[in-house]
Amino acid sequence: MNQNNICLFAAGTMESGPFLTQFLEENGVEEAYFKNIDWTYQKDALMRASNINEVKIPKVIHYVWFTNPLKEREMTDVARNIEEVETSVAALNQHGFSYNLWVNGEAKLNKTREWAESLGMKIRDIEELRGDDALANQALDVAKEYIADKQFAAAADVTRVIIVHKQGGVYIDGDQVVWQYDPILNNLDFFMYAHPYSGVYMIENSMIASTPNNAILRNLLEDIVDRKINKKKVFESECLNRSFYTALAETGPIRLTFAYNKALEEGFMENKSYIILHDKLKNDDCNQESHDYEYCSKLDRNTPLPHDQNYDLKFITRHFGAGTWFDFKKDLKNIGRLRDIAEN
Fold first, then answer.
1. Spans of all domains in the chain
2. What's the gap between Cα 295 and its chain centre?
3. Whose CA is closest to 22, among 251, 240, 338?
4. Contact (CB, 8 A) for 194 and 207
5. pLDDT value of residue 1
6. Helix boundaries (H) for 27-78
7. What's the chain's average pLDDT?
8. What's the predicted TM-score (pTM) here?
9. For domain 10-334, which CATH number applies: 3.90.550, 3.30.460, 3.30.300, 2.60.40?
10. How large is the average pLDDT for residues 72-94?
11. Which tens digit of pLDDT belongs to each residue from 238-280?
């Protein structure tokens, strides 16, 4: 929004590197965070790690799919989702994983259930997450409120954190494809990866893996619940708050980055074995935005990616970002004077 109280294209503003850098700084994310996630430090994570001779992170993969029960959208309606999930399952089957597909129980999703069960997935109702953890219960209420408001992306953001926080395991977005997986990752306390948004590296939430009761995830749930209960706005600018892109800062990667930074400041990482994967490692030849799923699927995947002099981490994945939550029409409707928009 400019000085004349005119709302411009908010999503474009939030995608800019200078804006993101300033927003992170205003929320306390400074040099220590960027040094920690930088690949010059993270590339030696396995060398620093201790006690990684046994499995810590449960070998279970979690997927999430929410829809409007009155106007259902099946997961199977997104053809690319199906192919990408099947590719990941084929790779992960080699390492003894089980699979959960978490849904809002009031949705029938008959086709999705049949397809998921054919892959060996167990269909789980998110109400199963309710228990004796008061914070998780509050967060689940927030997620269900988002579902009722048809904000399915935000609901999925919150629910994935509840799942991994309570049960542990590996959460994967439907459009996060895994071609090769290294089981040594499950011997860590947690692993995530950093993704550059307009050159600014933040902790991505399309793949989150951890043992239960991770302080980063608890920080995130506390933040989300507090903001929802106290009706805190994400930005000072009402123009930005009206954008669909605000989800990144309300429940998504930006908010996860804040939670990670807080845990780092509190010393949580000091006695933990972990790695923050980097785009230099997580992709092989499939590392250009122009490379689509079909191109990447044809690459030779027999050569492990270099990690350090002691270990080659055999892990190849890519997030294709289907963008099913994008709503550019919403932002276009908000262009103009805010008073005029409100009247419409």
1. 10-334
2. 24
3. 240
4. no
5. 44
6. 31-37, 39-42, 45-48
7. 85
8. 0.87
9. 3.90.550
10. 92
11. 777 767 667 788 999 999 999 999 999 999 999 999 999 986 5
